[in-house]
Amino acid sequence: KVLKGVRLSPNAGLIRKGLVIIQFCVSTILIICTVIIFQQVRHGKDRDLGMDRQNLIDVPLRGDMANHFEVLHQSLLATGLVKDATFGENQVFSLGSNGGGFSWPGKDPSKDVLITEEAVSPGYVRTMGMHLASGRVFYPDAKLDSNDIIINESLARLMGKEGVVGHYLVRSPNRWRIVGIVDDFVYNNMYQAASPLVFFCYPSVTSWLFVRFMPGVDPEKGIAAVGKVVRGEQPAYPFEYYFVDRQFDELFKSETLIGTLAAVFASLAVFISCLGLLGLAAFSAERRTREIGIRKVLGASLSGLLGLLSSEFLKLVAMACLAALPISWWIMHNWLENYDYRISIQWWVFVATVAGALGITLLTVTFQAWRAAAVNPTKSLRAE
Description:
Elements (H helix, E strand, L loop, with lengths): L11 H35 L9 E5 L8 H9 L4 E7 L9 E2 L15 E6 L3 H4 L4 E4 L12 E5 H7 L8 E4 L2 E9 L14 E5 L6 E6 L5 H15 L8 E2 H7 L2 H35 L1 H9 L4 H35 L10 H27 L3 H7 L1
Parallel strand pairs: 4-9, 6-8
Antiparallel strand pairs: 1-10, 1-11, 2-10, 3-4, 5-8, 6-9, 7-8
């Protein structure tokens, strides 16, 4: 009854204004959150991964395929469609094996460090498109590197002056010589810093075949060629494969879903707010019909009347935006704190959102204001 004006109470105006402020405050918060979430996802996808995920597939090893690396490697290269191939213990973005008990000269014996351990075949660094910071990759003959390792820069930094080529990593009773250091590459968590990692040249304990196609190769033809080689090696097992770049996209599934939901709710909130604003604008114009007619008779211009009818709503939306800015900043600041690799919140997101909210208000209110202001004053005054 208050909204319809059937029974006006002293607080009717405050209720209407309060609804506008609350609706646009929620809408503004959701819009800002949506923009920042999509920025964070894009930031993660665009970062330097430290490896090349394009034209790369992984195939699970079946039977005793892990013992036939050289035969598989040569057969794949002979297709003319494969640039390189290698074995790995885990999928490249999901390196799940880690362990402790490692030591080196100068290490604090009271602190145990978990280090990701990955068994690979020769050529792993080259096939994955990783960057060698110093030293060398494994020799083509895996037996020559059975006591050698390649580490990443995170582990090298952790080891301090011992984290250089030629020094040793020890876990009793074994002792491995560092022969190469690769630049940090992203795995497991796309938003966290790379964890310490060590590669062992043990192809016989691997579980995945990685195949990199030649640039420009038709994926269907490349996969068919790889499938023929793999089925020839193990005909009793089905041929399965996965695109590495699609696995990469799956790692952002949670954040992408949050962003999509936020976008949907933001759109609904803006739509509902505009409906409410349209109704209130029509209600306000209807109540001020006589006032508008008198102002036109006294010489008020159309633009002046539009400004008169729109200014009240613009003030309400501006108040809603002022309330929404600190709330949305606080929400997104706390959300971004969960990520080591994150964006900084940019001021232009707030400015653009406020400008958009005011623009939507103008579009919504001006239509009703123009209809009321364009009426011939003789008709509006006669109606009164």
